Amino acid sequence: MDHAKGFTEVGHASWYGKKFHGHKTSNGEIYDMYAMSAAHKNLPIPTYVKVTRIDNGKQVIVRVNDRGPFHQGRVIDLSYAAAHKLDMLKSGTSKVKLEAIVVPPPWEQEPLFEAITPVSTSLKVEAQTAETLPIAASPAMSPTNTEPDLYVQVTATQDSTKAARLVDQLALLFETDARTINEQQIHKVQLGPFKTEDDANKLIEILKQGEFSSAFKVYAQ
């Protein structure tokens, strides 16, 4: 297509993950399953697209940088991260509506990217409000509390740069805290702490559908 202005489409979305992670996309970029990207057959590359899952109303903004899907009846292939946000990892496919976001040049309209609202805006507002409130004592904050914290260890690597990047990506994707534990030049990437075993188990189930099939629970003070 020459342009994406006014483009809308309804059909089934699918997603692609670790099999293509680290490989080149159609425009020469490296596919990152944890980025908000997508593949479309004929939209201009790049194009920003709002994807709305029809049965639950969830939405994501993705950047088309690849060609596909090539299965009949599918209109877009979403990254692992985008599929997670739409809650379609288990189902594999979902009916969606696509709406292209065409950003005018700055001399025509501003501010740029007005249509793209950061997911974390409301969380930031809540955090700022919380800072003004008195902090009540809780068992987790008590010096007499000896219960260990529950984390999910995602992976371990000798590459400190890779570990730091993963911590940032996974914390944003799963909207949780994350940390690295460094032991004898091994950098352990961990998410948490989690309040319940059920929360940790749900995350492990999602991780194992992606690249991190060896994720497991750990307890630490």
From TrEMBL:
UniProt cross-references to CDD domains, sorted A to Z: DPBB_RlpA-like
Taxonomy, superkingdom: Bacteria
Listed InterPro entries: RlpA, RlpA-like_DPBB, RlpA-like_sf, RplA, SPOR-like_dom, SPOR-like_sf
Keyword terms, alphabetized: Cell wall biogenesis/degradation, Lyase, Signal
Domain SPOR: 144-220
GO biological process: cell wall organization; peptidoglycan metabolic process
GO cellular component: cell outer membrane
Coiled coil: none
E.C. no: 4.2.2.-
PROSITE patterns for the chain: SPOR
GO MF terms, alphabetically ordered: lytic endotransglycosylase activity; peptidoglycan binding
Family recorded in the similarity comment: Belongs to the RlpA family.
Protein function: Lytic transglycosylase with a strong preference for naked glycan strands that lack stem peptides.
Stated name of the protein: Endolytic peptidoglycan transglycosylase RlpA
Organism the protein comes from: Echinimonas agarilytica
